[in-house]
Amino acid sequence: MAPPGPAGAHPAAAEPLSRSIFRKFLLMLCSLLTSLYVFYCLAERCQTLSGPVVGLSAAGEEAGAPGPGVLVGGRTELALWSSATQRKRFLQLRPGQRRRRPAGRDGGEEAAWEEETPSLTGGPVGSGAGSSVAEAPPGTLALLLDEGSKQLPQAIIIGVKKGGTRALLEFLRVHPDVRAVGAEPHFFDRSYDKGLAWYRDLMPRTLDGQITMEKTPSYFVTREAPARISAMSKDTKLIVVVRDPVTRAISDYTQTLSKRPDIPTFESLTFKNRTTGLIDTSWSAIQIGIYAKHLEHWLHHFPIGQMLFVSGERLISDPAGELGRVQDFLGLKRIITDKHFYFNKTKGFPCLKKAEGSSKPHCLGKTKGRTHPEIDREVVQRLRDFYRPFNLKFYQMTGQDFGWDG
Ligand SMILES: Nc1ncnc2c1ncn2[C@@H]1O[C@H](COP(=O)(O)OS(=O)(=O)O)[C@@H](OP(=O)(O)O)[C@H]1O
């Protein structure tokens, strides 16, 4: 057979050769681009990828936010960070965080989860399928890279029950430099014997510059709590969310009523003797609201400057304003602003446009913002009269007029 002539010579052989060169070239280009991209990320330039953290929150999971591993978040906050912090946040992958009791709790569900559904829900307003956000469990990229460590909290929301403590913590968690335990640890009132190592182990891992926080509203009325927290660290910053003590008492009662509908009326529980008008100060719903008395105990152990009093009312009417004060107090950049909130008319409360680790709007669950029962006006007035002197004392002690009496 004659060898192929020049015209139709080796067309079939020449083509595969150029294709294979082209394929090799493509492959090299891809590897080059990938390497460039990895290098780009490591060079702290990952703004285009994600928001404050690459991760998820239980709230996100629950609300149908992106699934595990999905990158969420926005760019604006990120731009405010120092580049070193950004790199660390990028490495701090937070996987789905689950509702769970603090390790080793031997109390019942009620003990650790007294406030019921301490969560943000993103379903229909008030869907209340609550979950809480405990610390990131082991297995995170951060853990693999040995990034971060568990620290005792530098700031604690110590009260008051029904003051708006969950709202404050959930709003604060939006801040990239705040990491918090979702559940109430109740360490300084119920589990102190378990020791500080146990307590620290409940905390989420943090990186340099991040603040570890927790909230347990019952600390404010626990006699032993001030000395115990001071023994942990006398530099601990304390935040108290206070609310008109009369509304707070009704809110407290409403919570109990929702669990035990057969309890006596608010009116009958308020008085030791209704005819004499003697208020029953041993009823916790009443006692918790005597803020000045509780505060005295704290002032034996902490200077007033180390405590911040947040108005529960303003936390609803002007969340960004109160969050501004809190961020200043914690020495944080003012990253949480009015841009983070919207008022949800159905819920009747401010909600987050985007909760931590989610890109969807989030309101607190249905156990926050319950409808209060109608209380006899005369009883309400009696309570107002009862609380007035304590409120005035509290205004003096804190240097703030919360406006409950005028
Ligand atoms: N944004 C937002 N959304 C929903 N609810 C809000 C919000 N801000 C403050 N509040 C008020 O928080 C009250 C519950 O307070 P706490 O979270 O401190 O309760 S608890 O002690 O942890 O059970 C809760 O009390 P109730 O209205 O009586 O249910 C709310 O009034």
TrEMBL record:
Question: What membrane topology was assigned to this protein in its record?
Answer: Single-pass type II membrane protein
Q: What class of enzyme is it?
A: transferase
Cellular component (GO) terms are: Golgi membrane
- Tell me the ranges covered by the Sulfotransferase domain, including all copies: 153-388
Keywords (alphabetical) are: Disulfide bond, Glycoprotein, Golgi apparatus, Membrane, Signal-anchor, Transferase, Transmembrane, Transmembrane helix
What does the record give as the active site?
162
Residues annotated as binding 3'-phosphoadenylyl sulfate are: 162-166, 243, 251, 368-372
**Which InterPro entries does the annotation name?**
NST/OST (IPR037359), P-loop_NTPase (IPR027417), Sulfotransferase_dom (IPR000863)
Under which EC number(s) is this enzyme classified?
Answer: 2.8.2.-
Positions with biased composition (Basic residues):
93-102
Subcellular location, in the record's words? Golgi apparatus membrane
**GO MF annotation terms:** [heparan sulfate]-glucosamine 3-sulfotransferase activity
Membership in a protein family: Belongs to the sulfotransferase 1 family.
Record-given protein name? Sulfotransferase
Q: What is the lineage of its organism?
A: Eukaryota, Metazoa, Chordata, Craniata, Vertebrata
